[in-house]
Q: What sequence folds into this?
């Protein structure tokens, strides 16, 4: 529900009640009424029928009033009995009732408000009859310097009390008759524009103003009053202020008076406005204080502004400005720049190279000695024995340059520099600044071999490819790992790329490997020139001789110890074998091998001798003392003729046989070209001489040997007859009858050649004739062949007889029988 409804409801209740209680009656009475009294004011709203009763008039307080009001009981008019003064009482509140004599209320109570209507009967008056004011020269026009006050007792808000101020006169009237202006309604006195501009020209004596205050507003009528104002013009003390210099960190009691401003006019109120906020204050007398210590480094200068105001907050004049300059004290030490990463300077940088520029910052006043910083190098100090300093420092600029002293790559130097203010004078403040300088490596060292000559290194001819030959080590004096990387190369001597190198750039060594088969015949030695160089570009001097090394490789010829055709040799020999008989020949396994040299090691009996070059073993003397059936073992040493150090030995076992009946000198060997099988006492004489006359013939003996074919060796036996001839016989009892070609190697005077001897082996007649094959006898036998057949038949009979006898004879001495093959041929012959 709308609350206004409630309100209306609430109001309607007294309205209903007031139906019985009549509305208040408003009556106005003019003040100071000058007519006859009683003055009838208003007829009371009485009921129509005439009622006998008595009017009672109550004042607001409830007391029965004694005047000046009354009710005419005849007419029922409210009347006033005398003149009223509004200034005494403005309003009267009355209650009128009609009562019976016994006090019974017949009508009323009727409230009545009597208002006394103001009459302009009051004269305005000034608060003072004489005002005094000091007027400072320089006061701006329109800024009031005096506030007039006047009062009027008439009803406020009406024209009767509406006051206006006016200047009636001004003495003196120089330099202008209108020096001042008075605000008519407010009564504020100020300089007029012309007054302001000409006040400086004013006379020495004060001005006197006659001023008026008048009521009734701007109407011409009205009451008025006057007052005088004495205005003394005073010199303007509101003058610009010289800057104040104030030491920072000043130790004085605070607040500390630093200045004073003064407005010489009256009614002044000072204020401080800090254009640069700071600890300053001003009091009512215009004294300016600093309230605490100042710090130049926080604020070096302040600009303050002071104003002089009238009581209504208007500035009399332009505010004054005051500059406060804080005087520096050397309260700040130089501050080193923050320590950064080390400064890298390349190795070998020339003296004078700028390393860094130190700039310590001093917070004290710039341009003053307090902030004048000079530098001094504390460390490193120049070392003894070293020419010049490592670093030079310019004391004023702080520039650090390289000195004459040398550096090493990787060196880290801590520079310690004293930065002092007051230009280094005593009493100044200082700090120690530190800078680390790192000497950066450059690739100025070439890698060098630790050894320039390697070897000679012996490599056997049969060394396999993939053999490590040598390891070459090199060093690099640089520090930076990249600058130590190396490349190797074989520059010269690597014939047919027999060798190669393997390396890792960062390992500091290279391996020389054999890559191909060596051959002593092709090259007996190699001289390899290996060079090493830096992988990165080299700065500075060219590589020296240390960057190359020579590897000498010698190829060793591989010679194996002599090899023989048999692991051991054995021969049977009759104890009566004469001296000089050939027993056997020791052959190398490979006839083409290098020449051998034979010797007997422990022939303690002295029975044997051996031909040094051919390996033929002879009896040296008669085998006196040899027992049949016994054996005699001799060690034969075989040496390589070219490499005497290479030797081997072989055993030779002689088996002694019972003395073989010395056969008669063999019939002169029949120079047949056929031999019988089974074997007979025949041989083929072979001449060593060649068909072509040999100019050297006869000078030395010929020597003969069978060809190396094992079958030939097995089937045939060759004996030396004398210096120029040999005798070829069957070695076996039975050799296949056919034509044989026997290879015989003849050596003479260091010459050797091969003879191919054609020998027909056949079955023989008793006479040693070849038996012809039956198939060949075709047709009639010739006379000769008939005789031959007869002789042959007889011979066969004889042969059979011989066989029988021989068999008998042989079976008798069966225990002594020896294989015919093992009988030395000589003895058989
Ligand atoms: C090197 O010699 C070995 C053994 O004598 C042989 O087997 C091989 O084939 C040879 N290599 C070359 C490349 O001649
Ligand atoms: C010669 O030396 C061999 C081997 O040492 C030995 O068997 C043999 O009996 C020795 N011969 C003589 C005659 O001393
Ligand atoms: C060697 O013997 C052969 C055959 O018996 C003979 O013809 C030759 O004259 C002899 N030579 C010498 C130098 O005795």
A:
């Amino acid at each position: 529900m709308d609350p206004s409804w409630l309100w209306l409801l609430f109001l309607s209740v007294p309205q209903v009640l007031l139906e019985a209680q009549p509305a208040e009656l408003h009556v106005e009475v003019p003040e100071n009424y000058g007519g006859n009294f009683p003055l009838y004011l208003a007829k009371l709203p009485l009921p129509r029928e005439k009622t006998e009763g008595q009017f009672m008039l109550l004042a607001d307080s409830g007391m029965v009033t004694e005047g000046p009001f009354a009710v005419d009981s005849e007419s029922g008019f409210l009347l006033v009995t005398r003149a009223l003064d509004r200034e005494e009482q403005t309003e009267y509140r009355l209650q009128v009732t009609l009562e019976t004599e016994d006090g019974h209320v017949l009508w009323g109570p009727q409230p009545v408000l009597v208002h006394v209507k103001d009459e302009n009967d009051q004269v305005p008056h000034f608060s003072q009859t004489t005002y005094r004011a000091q007027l400072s020269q320089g006061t701006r026009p329109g800024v009031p310097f005096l506030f007039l006050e006047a009062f009027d007792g008439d009803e406020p808000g009406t024209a009767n009390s509406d006051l206006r101020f006016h200047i009636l006169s001004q003495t003196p009237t120089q330099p202008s008759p209108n020096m001042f202006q008075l605000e008519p309604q407010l009564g504020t006195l100020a300089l007029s524009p012309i007054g302001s501009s000409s006040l400086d020209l004013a006379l020495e004596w004060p001005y006197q103003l006659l001023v008026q205050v008048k009521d009734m507003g701007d109407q011409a009528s009205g009451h008025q009053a006057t007052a005088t104002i004495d205005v003394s013009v005073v010199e303007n003390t509101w003058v610009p202020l010289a800057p104040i210099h104030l030491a920072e960190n000043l130790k004085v009691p605070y607040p500390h008076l630093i200045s004073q401003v003064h407005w010489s006019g009256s009614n002044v109120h000072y204020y401080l406005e800090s254009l640069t906020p700071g600890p300053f204050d001003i009091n009512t007398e215009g004294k300016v204080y600093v309230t605490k210590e100042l710090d130049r480094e926080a604020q070096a200068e302040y600009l303050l502004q002071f104003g002089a105001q009238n009581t209504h907050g208007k500035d009399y004049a332009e505010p004054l400005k005051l500059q406060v300059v804080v005087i520096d004290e050397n309260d700040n030490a130089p501050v080193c720049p923050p320590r950064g990463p080390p400064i890298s300077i390349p190795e070998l940088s020339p003296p004078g190279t700028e390393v860094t520029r130190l700039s310590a910052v001093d917070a004290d006043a710039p341009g003053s000695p307090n902030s004048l910083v000079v530098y001094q190098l504390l460390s490193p100090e120049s070392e003894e024995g070293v020419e010049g300093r490592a670093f030079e420092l310019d004391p004023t600029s702080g520039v650090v340059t390289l000195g004459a002293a040398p550096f090493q790559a990787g060196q880290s130097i801590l520079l310690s520099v004293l930065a002092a203010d007051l230009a280094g004078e005593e009493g100044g403040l200082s700090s120690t600044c530190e800078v680390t300088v790192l000497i950066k490596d450059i690739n100025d060292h070439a890698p060098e071999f630790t050894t320039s000559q390697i070897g000679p290194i012996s490599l056997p001819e049969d060394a396999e490819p993939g053999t490590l030959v040598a390891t070459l080590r090199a060093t690099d004096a640089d520090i930076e790992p990249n600058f130590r990387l190396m490349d190797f190369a074989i520059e010269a001597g690597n014939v047919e790329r027999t060798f190669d190198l393997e390396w890792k750039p960062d390992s500091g060594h290279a391996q020389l490997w054999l890559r191909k088969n060596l051959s002593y015949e092709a090259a007996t030695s190699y001289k390899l020139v290996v060079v090493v160089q830096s992988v990165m570009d080299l700065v500075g001097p060219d590589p020296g001789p240390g960057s190359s090394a020579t590897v000498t490789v010698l190829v060793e010829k591989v010679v194996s110890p002599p090899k023989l055709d048999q692991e051991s040799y054995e021969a049977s020999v009759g104890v009566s074998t004469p001296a000089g008989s050939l027993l056997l020949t020791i052959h190398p396994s490979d006839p083409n091998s290098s020449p051998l040299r034979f010797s007997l090691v422990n022939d303690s009996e002295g029975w044997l001798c051996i031909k040094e070059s051919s390996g033929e073993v002879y009896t040296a003397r008669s085998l006196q003392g040899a027992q049949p059936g016994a054996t005699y073992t001799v060690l034969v040493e075989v040496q390589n003729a070219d490499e005497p150090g290479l030797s081997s030995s072989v055993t030779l076992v002689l088996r002694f046989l019972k003395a073989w009946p010395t056969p008669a000198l063999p019939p002169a060997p029949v120079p047949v070209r056929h031999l019988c099988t089974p074997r007979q006492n025949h041989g083929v004489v072979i001449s060593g001489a060649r068909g072509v006359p040999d100019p050297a013939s006869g000078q030395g003996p010929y020597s003969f040997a069978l060809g190396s074919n094992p079958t030939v060796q097995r089937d045939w036996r060759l004996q030396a007859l004398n210096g120029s001839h040999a005798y070829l016989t069957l070695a076996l009892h039975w050799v296949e009858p056919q034509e044989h070609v026997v290879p015989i190697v003849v050596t003479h005077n260091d010459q050797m050649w091969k003879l191919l001897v054609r020998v027909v082996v056949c079955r023989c007649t008793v006479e040693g004739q070849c038996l012809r094959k039956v198939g060949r006898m075709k047709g009639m036998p010739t006379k000769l062949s008939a005789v031959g057949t007869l002789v042959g038949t007889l011979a066969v009979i004889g042969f059979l007889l011989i066989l029988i006898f021989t068999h008998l004879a042989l079976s008798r001495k069966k225990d002594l029988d020896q294989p015919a093959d093992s009988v030395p041929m000589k003895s058989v012959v």
Remarks:
- Residues 203 and 393 are 74 Å apart (CA to CA).
- The two ends are 177 Å apart (CA to CA).
- The chain has a mean pLDDT of 82.
